[in-house]
Write a structure and sequence with these properties.
CATH class of chain B: Mainly Beta
Radius of gyration of chain B: 13 Å
Number of helices of chain A: 8
Strand order of the largest sheet of chain A: 11-12-13-10-4-14
Structural class of chain B: alpha+beta
CATH topology of the largest domain in chain A: Gyrase A, domain 2
CATH class of the largest domain in chain A: Alpha Beta
Strand order of the largest sheet of chain B: 1-2-3-9-8-5
Strand content of chain A: 25-35%
Largest interface: A-B, 18 and 11 residues
Strand content of chain B: 25-35%
Radius of gyration of chain A: 21 Å
Distance between the termini of chain A: 39 Å
Helix content of chain A: 10-25%
Number of strands of chain A: 20
Shape of chain B: globular
Order of helices and strands of chain A: EHEEHEEHEEEHEEHEEEHEHHEEEEEE
Shape of chain A: globular
Number of domains of chain B: 1
Oligomer: heterodimer
Distance between the termini of chain B: 12 Å
Largest sheet of chain B: 6 strands, antiparallel
Helix content of chain B: 10-25%
CATH superfamily of chain B: RNA polymerase II/Efflux pump adaptor protein, barrel-sandwich hybrid domain
Structural class of chain A: alpha+beta
CATH architecture of chain B: Beta Barrel
Number of helices of chain B: 4
CATH architecture of the largest domain in chain A: 2-Layer Sandwich
Number of domains of chain A: 3
């Protein structure tokens, strides 16, 4: 399959972005450099092209009942214009995908899903539609999206709109924000652990918004930021990545996301029984943070040992650009996850000492 | 991408500067650029022996880890210890900052490496 271009492709090339095929999309790993971009987001602002994300609309009389059946979190707990993070699971508790649900009203919701999972999610949703009175629509190609992230985000975005952005609280959104003369949906969300916004526009409007944001934020130090730092930022903030910390084989309970799985939700939902069973029997393995004490950088997939016995693997690891430490998340036997426990990470076939620490590193 | 004359190059983007029986080995500008911000260099020990094309060191950016291979077989004479604390030197000046100095085991192996002109052509055509 040939990778697709987002509406911002030409902008990435113009800005010197190192473009790669990511999840079927041509996107920049970095422009100026991963560490400089990472620091821009932590200290000022960064601008990400996230137009590759999938957008799926669920609407109809049974929209809420259907989502309650499909998703692990309690979708009835949010108000209009509010957002909730949730998992969508298989009957065995493995994860189909994790994403944000935007509530327009009781009869219409928007799901913003991982790009690589969009087709799979859409099919899964159709296959499990049952007799619910709803329409499911994949509108991904119609929507452009950028994320402005970092402490200066509000100040910069405010220059392009008359809407008072301070009124949009975290995990809330406004569907009628005019940005650069274009009507957009703006949410106070992101995947970096910093304050920031995600701006959804008609696909054809996103180039102007992108250019205007980079211009408007010059004095504040905004930089275009790539996929490389998107991953280091979310990792430092303790956020999971589908395929690493959760997957078809790793349940959200094992991935440390129990808060987003309502085990006692009134309604039945896909995976409820298996997840309850797994929790009641006790987790055999779960994710834990660790810091490498010896020399070397842990990478996802590296094996983890204790006293010569294999106890799991690294799900994500980096030299943390913010903390300047070699840290990671590993999926290991539950009895080894106690804070302070010493473990060995196999780095290029050599065991390197590490210690279990909290998974929210910042 | 900068290519320096009078060095030899490999298809894995190492450079070799020959000095009699000895040689310095480093990473080309193309290699450092492809890796991005280098944050860690794993170095061998002095007196370690390696065959041609054997991995003797690893260099890691935030995003990726890559092995460095011996352009020719030989024995490690010196390692560039500055790289332990300042791995970014390889980004800043990849030709000034060598990784290891070796004693070349068989000088005939040098003939199999690319000249700077050949490497430039290789970058244009193959990469």
């Amino acid at each position: 399959m040939v990778a697709k271009k987002t509406p911002l492709y030409d902008e990435h090339v113009k800005l010197g972005g190192k473009v790669v095929d990511y999840a079927g999309w041509y996107l920049p790993v970095q422009y100026e450099g991963l560490i400089a971009e990472h620091e821009a987001v932590r200290n000022a602002a960064g601008l990400f092209d996230v137009s590759h994300m999938g957008e799926i609309v669920v609407k109809g009389k049974d929209a809420l009942a259907y989502l309650q059946y499909l998703l692990t979190n309690d979708i009835s707990s949010i108000e209009d214009d509010q957002i909730i993070y949730t998992m969508m699971c298989y009957p065995d508790g493995g994860v189909v995908d994790d994403f944000l649900v935007y509530k327009y009203d009781d009869e219409e919701y928007l799901l913003v899903v991982n790009a690589a999972n969009t087709e799979k999610d859409f099919k899964w949703m159709i296959d499990n539609k049952k007799d619910f009175n709803i329409i499911i629509e994949n509108i991904s190609d119609q929507i452009g999206e950028v994320a402005i992230q970092g402490p200066k985000s509000e100040e910069i975005l405010q220059k392009l709109t008359d809407t008072d952005l301070s009124k949009i609280k975290p995990f809330h959104f406004d569907r009628k924000v005019v940005v650069s003369g274009i009507e957009c949906m703006v949410s106070r969300t992101g995947y970096t652990g910093e304050d920031g916004f995600e701006v959804y526009s008609p696909a054809e409007g996103i180039v102007k918004i992108w250019q205007d944001l980079l211009d408007a934020g010059k004095d504040e130090g905004i930089k275009p930021t790539g996929l490389g730092c998107r991953d280091t930022l979310r990792f430092e903030a303790g956020m999971p990545l589908y395929g690493n910390e959760i997957s078809k084989e790793i349940t959200p309970l094992e991935g440390g996301l129990k808060f987003f799985v309502k085990l006692d939700k009134e309604e039945d939902y896909i995976g409820k029984e298996a997840l309850n069973k797994q929790w009641n029997e006790g987790l055999k393995r779960r994710v834990a943070g660790f810091e490498v004490l010896g020399r070397g950088i842990p990478r996802s997939g590296y094996e983890v040992y204790k006293d010569g016995e294999k106890i799991g693997h690294v799900t994500t690891g980096y030299m943390s650009p913010t903390l300047k430490k070699n840290i990671g998340v590993a999926l290991i036997k539950t009895e080894e996850t106690e804070l302070g426990n010493e473990i060995d990470i196999m780095i290029r076939n050599k065991p390197v000492k590490a210690v279990v620490i909290k998974r929210r590193f910042l | 991408m900068k290519v320096v004359k009078d060095l030899f190059y490999t298809e894995d983007h190492e450079w070799v500067k020959v000095d009699g029986d000895e040689a310095y080995i480093g990473l080309s500008d193309y290699a450092q650029n492809a890796l991005g911000d280098i944050v860690y260099v794993d170095l061998p020990e002095v007196e370690d022996e390696f065959d041609k094309e054997e991995g003797f060191s690893a260099v890691e950016s935030v995003k990726a880890a890559a092995d460095i291979y011996m352009p020719v077989g030989g024995t490690i004479l010196e390692i560039n210890e500055d790289l332990f604390d300042n791995p970014e030197l390889l980004n800043q000046d990849p030709y000034e900052n060598w990784v290891v100095k070796i004693k070349v085991a068989d000088k005939a192996e040098l003939d199999e490496l690319m000249t700077s002109e050949e490497y430039e052509k290789f970058l244009d055509e193959e990469v």
